[in-house]
Amino acid sequence: MLETGTGLLFIGLLLLTYYLYIPGLGGTFIFDDVPNFKPWADMGDITSTQDIIRFCLSSAHFPGRPLSLASFLINDQSWPADIHALKSTNLLLHLLNTCLCFWLLLKLLCPSPGSKGTVMALLIAAVWALHPLQVSNVSYIIQRMNLLSTATTLIGLILYVSGRARLSTAPAAALAYCTGGIGVFLIIGILCKENGLLLCAYALLIEYFFFSINKAPDTPEWWPYWKACFLWAPLLLFVVYSLYSYKGFTTGFENRDYTAAERLFTQGPVLVSYLDKLLIPHTGGTGLYFDNFPISRSLWSPINTLYSWIFILGLLSASFMLRKKAPLFAFGVFFYFAGHSMESTVIPLELYFEHRNYLPQLGIWISIASLLTLFFTQASTQKIKPAAAAGGFIFLVFISFLTRQNAELWGDYPAQAATWYHDNPTSLRTAQEYASVLYQIPGLEGEAALVLQKAGRDHPNILAPVMSERFAQCVHTGTPPDFDDLVARASRADYESTAVSVLARLTGFKTGEARNPCPGFSEQGLERLMLTLAKNPKFKGSTQSDLYMSLAELAVSNQDLEKTIAYYDAAFAASPNPVFPYRQALYLGSAGLYSDAGRYLDLAEKSLDWRKKLFYPTLANDIKKLRASLPP
Fold first, then answer.
1. Res 32 pLDDT > 70
2. What is the pLDDT of residues 221-243, one digit of tens each?
3. How many CB atoms lie within 10 A of CB 609?
4. In this model, does residue 374 exceed pLDDT 90?
5. Residue 182 above 90 pLDDT?
6. Dihedral angle of Cα 618, 621, 626, 628, to the nearest 10 degrees
7. Which of 429, 523, 604, 608 is deepest in the core (most CB within 10 A)?
8. What is the 3-state secondary structure (H, E, C) of 170-215?
């Protein structure tokens, strides 16, 4: 039971956190919000059970994140969705996670009534809740997935610790707590976001540092078998699944500018950069876009890669050696790096996102708190304690100020785009975001063009900024773009996902889906541009499939059946989506080519495996209806 003073301080922390984050509840959809909510935008209002299932299973990867997607529908079922409502729920989840963090810390640091450590737990929870690096998890709408995954992980750990503490005195109750905490919340967490699997890794660290190290074993005979099944086995299965899915991490990087080894090398400087921003909060240079972070081609290129890994391995080695003398410090260090073990190793994700520190940074504050506690207990003068308390208070005030400032940016999209571009002008994404804002302000079209032209010079092998600048000029001035030049660039362009999305919008100029059309541009030139890019070996898999799908939609708008079928064939060859042959069957059936339509329906059924049935729950029935409508 908390003392009254501590309880009031914690309530004050929650109120302060809420106040600091309020400005970030405005703004707009940004970056990954757009593709994740595209199925919702395509469906419009989600009013039926069938629509809910389709949206919740719309993720391109298995098992997807259906529980997170379902949670958005609690806020709104119409499109466009209420951004304030979506972000408000994110903030409430952050407050919930703050409560759960504090609860877990109390269980770990104050295992029995009257134990010291309540103040430490409160201070750790305060820094975790108030740190400016947490703002993107609240104000970046799609990070609802990370918030929910964190909540399930913390609940699972609380239950696990509650059960583990009873293991020697009440083994039956301990089994129920531990099995419920790990077994149930592991599955729930993974269905919110894949890193929910880290619940097992965190539990293993707690098991070692709080229940095994420096203590004589006092557990039932069945306990090692339980740990093997519930803690080790899921992690091992994930490693085997990842090795199988990515063929030993030799695949999955087709559309990346780095290999698995280069990604691992780069994560050394990335993790050191995260630690720098955590320990020395910055007044600038934070945000969402770090697509220009230098790639480490080896341990020596650039040389800071070697220094970063020496520091990380040295920190881990020191923590291991101190695990018995300073277990809390070692636990915090290992907790932090365990939290990054999925997203900061060899899985083919993007290199750098600040929001990946959301739960892992809890370990850093635990380690620092343990060092400060050790220092205070050995301090020779009482004058140090008031000075240290004043320093801690100033640090909390400073990070609170930065958090409020950061939240205000997230709530003001134009200011956010301008600030991020000013802080990181060589980032392609900040340039495109800022140019998009400038183009919406009358009279600033010229400045927007200059931003994109600079981005084109900074990234000469990237097609997107040149394309965006040419077509924006067409929309605003009526000057048709030079396709010959763009086609030449497309043949040697490096991969960048924005190029595909820009081309999809250009297709909308002809299909009637786009607003503010670009008059007078060459449809044949657009087709040549997309074909050239689709044949570029750096655009593979689903990206190449998206390009051919856009070409097919362009052919549909021109009522060119032959090209429609050919382009959908190419899209299917690049990425076997059963929707493609189903659409081909629709068009062929409408043209009276019933035999060909039946053949494509056979292909659609053959490619509709159990995973595709989850993603397209109505497709099997649609295929059956179309087949029944075709004459024999």
1. yes
2. 999 999 999 999 999 999 999 99
3. 10
4. no
5. yes
6. -170
7. 604
8. CHHHHHHHHHHHHHHHHHHHHHHCHHHHHHHHHHHHHHHHHHHCCC
